[in-house]
Amino acid sequence: MEDPVPTAPLLTQPERLERRLKDIPPEPGCYLMRDGEDRILYVGKSKTLRSRVRSYFRSRHDLSPRIRLMTRQVCEIEFIVTDSEAEALALESNLIKNHQPHFNVLLKDDKKYPYLCITWSEAYPRIFITRRRRFRSPLDRFYGPYVDVGLLRRTLFLVKRVFPLRQRPRPLHQDRTCLNHSIGRCPGVCQEMISSEDYHRTLRKVAMVFQGRSDELQHLLAEQMERYAERLDFESAARVRDQLQGLDQLTADQKMSLPDSSVSRDVVALACDERLAAVQLFQMRAGKLVGRLGYMADADSLDPGLILQRVIEEHYSQVDAVEIPPELLVQHQLPQQALLEEWLTEQRERRVQIHCPKQRQKADLIELLQRNAEFELLRAKQGQEQQALATEDLAQLLELPTPPRRIEGYDISHIQGSDAVASQVVFIDGLPAKQHYRKYKIRSSSIRAGHSDDFMAMAEIMRRRFRRWARAKAEGVDVGALRHKGGSALQTDGLNDWPDVVMIDGGKGQLSAVMEALRELDLHEDLNVCSLAKQREEVFLPGESHPLESEPDQLGVALLRRLRDEAHRFAVTFHRQQRGQRMKRSRLSDIPGLGPKRVKDLLAHFHSIDAIQLASVEVLAKAPGVGPALARDIHDFFHPNDDERQDVSSDEPRARIA
What we know:
single chain, GIY-YIG endonuclease, six-stranded mixed β-sheet, disordered N terminus, disordered C terminus
């Protein structure tokens, strides 16, 4: 019998899974997990491929939730055999960098640490600070994460003063440069006044600063200045001199001198408990501290040396070879230290040594990093404890059996009924989960400009939000059993988003309208619903005429208040967006012969309706897709009285003023 089409998960086909596992050889190499759409979910390496891959499907209870989620989506397994485990490690790094698999995320996405991104894939790369590593191209590079965002911003500001760089993501003018070019801050990228090759050459110098190679860059610039001076090109020599002076200021601000200035090294240490590990990595170049990077990792009671090893693999698989120092100091002995040295040496193409120092000077560095890591771990634990206390306090306030994990907040935004919208925001474990946010346009014909009804709008949103659950309950599905499963993302029927608490922005009126809508859905007894009134920060429950006894500053109410404020912000932002689009459409769409595409082209060319209104017929006719006749129609639409004034001036001469 032939294998089924590999679009179903292997876990649902035990016979096919067993055949695939037997096909994998007991050799060193890399394995690739693919889903039903042939996307790579995960890339891993092992000294013995068969036993490693088999472990994903045999002892699943020992796997982390992330890996269990991944194995349920695996439809095909590929493997690449190598001669040694060292080759497998290098191959794994290249495959991860090229494909960026979704589940190859060892470290948590800790949004408090920013990165610096350089988009090397573009003809004129951009350089900017971001808190989310979203790979657009394998050529783009992320430097960091950096612990001190203030220092990072000052560094980037000084770099942009020293080197002429692209300042805007989009050109300010279509046919000329902006002020940045006139004052020497930008080389005229928008008008291509510098070639892509020359701009890349400039940006490579900038990258050396964030790679900890400022001393090397200063040496190169000094040699370049001397060559310009020998050729009597004093203007270019003066420009390089200014760059050197700027680098002196930059390095003076960001570096701290440490002993032993003859060696460049990275130092890695951690502090951990049974659940969480805070890892610190200090980048020391020529004896100076040029960068401090921070990571948070799941500890899961693992050996500290193993945690450090995985962090080192993750970090150095994402950096350029020139960023790898010749020496790496670690707090604990690594399980595969010799293998890592071999891999890093191959990456750098020069010898790399890893030491677990015992001598006083280097041991002091490790102790310094450990203290920093302990502070970071304490801060992370305090944040987690604060959120846990808030959810526990909310559970006591609402008389829930357990602390709520998923809390949803709803709000309505409009101006006298026009452009009415609603927002749904979600907090999980007390923190915003923006991937679950939803926006709604109010569909009720009774809500229109000049006539608003927040009660009706909120009831409409509840019906639309929970109608899938109501339909499932009407078909005999046990809603109680589903919601106690914790909302697994693997459910294919869409019933994986049951909230533990629903919070309505408003008072008793909004709450009554919501409960009436839930009664129609037969879900009024299944959901925990409350409302938060704005004036006195009072919490109301269904059927209660008086608010709950609470204090505005208690943790549970503060959590509801943060949820309410976030729902309000999200709703107002969406409302303003809809209102702006309507205002654009309402004015330009009324012009005969001007369709949606031409409206879009006009706005892209003139950037605003005011600019279109002020433009003459000749200027309008030069816009893309607009000829003389349409330009006259557009001009007449905004200036309907011009022809009348011209007729009056020609037929009836003005009276003279005596």
